[in-house]
Write a structure and sequence with these properties.
266 residues, mainly alpha, Hypothetical protein af1432, 13 helices
Length: 266
């Protein structure tokens, strides 16, 4: 499904003002009111909200437009920009959702539907990071793998039915000038075997993580073709031992994230 000019304009008009998710908005809003906010706490929250993540990356790009040769982590961005610069920039996006929840302009049905997509995104991000680690990828790349997996379905958060979520997500990230590797993951995670550029390894990792989460955690047994999943496993040269470890690692990490979201305890 292709993107026409009208839909592209619609995405571009919305992308710069997309607010925080209901799952994270109250936490972000509250922590940003503190004069003594800890960088680690802010980092964790940003990495759990796809729109706040993208807004933070876009802010960084506006300060350093020529630093586009690699992915910069949220931790690096907080250090390079200063924590107060980041905090002051993202708080209005959280405030919008925070006030919507208080004023009941954001429905419970929307929050519940949104929550399934949120948890799936977090699960794919976590699984992508663990696969990278178990494959021996440099630890400095772990956040890149998590972020790519976490953002792979960001197009679905726009709820634009006239276009495919991969195309919507790619247009959104391109509009915000996010790193090209993230754009490639979003565009090709359902066609990972057709992608052969320099980001092929991370595209395939996220595609496999997506399949594994759907099949193992969400019990959607027919969501990925076995032939496609097996081809990804072969391309990444993985063995069964890795998947045995994922079955322990991923649910435990997801439980920790869910506990945090419910309690707000960073």
């Amino acid at each position: 499904m292709s993107i026409n000019r009208a839909i592209e304009t619609q995405i571009q008009n919305r992308v710069k003002t997309m607010p925080a998710l209901p799952q994270t908005a109250d936490h972000i809003y509250r922590i940003c009111q503190s004069y003594n906010v800890q960088a680690g706490s802010l980092y964790k929250l940003i990495c759990l909200d796809p729109f706040i993540f993208c807004h933070t990356q876009a802010l960084f790009n506006s300060y350093f437009p020529k630093l586009n040769e690699r992915f910069y982590s949220i931790a690096e961005i907080i250090i390079m920009l200063n924590i107060n610069t980041v905090k002051n920039y993202i708080v209005p996006f959280a405030q919008t959702t925070h006030e919507g929840i208080l004023g009941k302009t954001i429905s419970k049905n929307f929050i519940e539907a949104n929550n399934k997509l949120f948890l799936h995104s977090v699960a794919v991000g976590i699984t992508s990071r663990f696969i990278a680690g178990l494959r021996g990828v440099d630890a400095l790349q772990f956040e890149y793998y998590y972020s790519a997996g976490f953002l792979h379905d960001i197009g679905k958060f726009f709820f634009i039915e006239e276009a495919g979520h991969s195309e919507v997500g790619q247009v959104a990230l391109k509009q915000m000038s996010l790193y090209s590797g993230l754009q490639n993951v979003i565009a090709f995670h359902h066609d990972a075997l057709k992608f052969s550029g320099k980001d092929a390894e991370i595209v395939r990792t996220v595609a496999l993580a997506d399949c594994w989460v759907k099949r193992k955690l969400e019990l959607k047994m027919d969501s990925c073709e076995p032939k496609f999943e097996n081809a990804l496993i072969n391309k990444l040269e993985l063995n069964q031992a890795i998947f045995n470890q994922l079955e322990n690692l991923v649910p435990n990490e997801l439980k920790r994230v869910s506990t945090f979201i419910k309690s707000g305890a960073v």
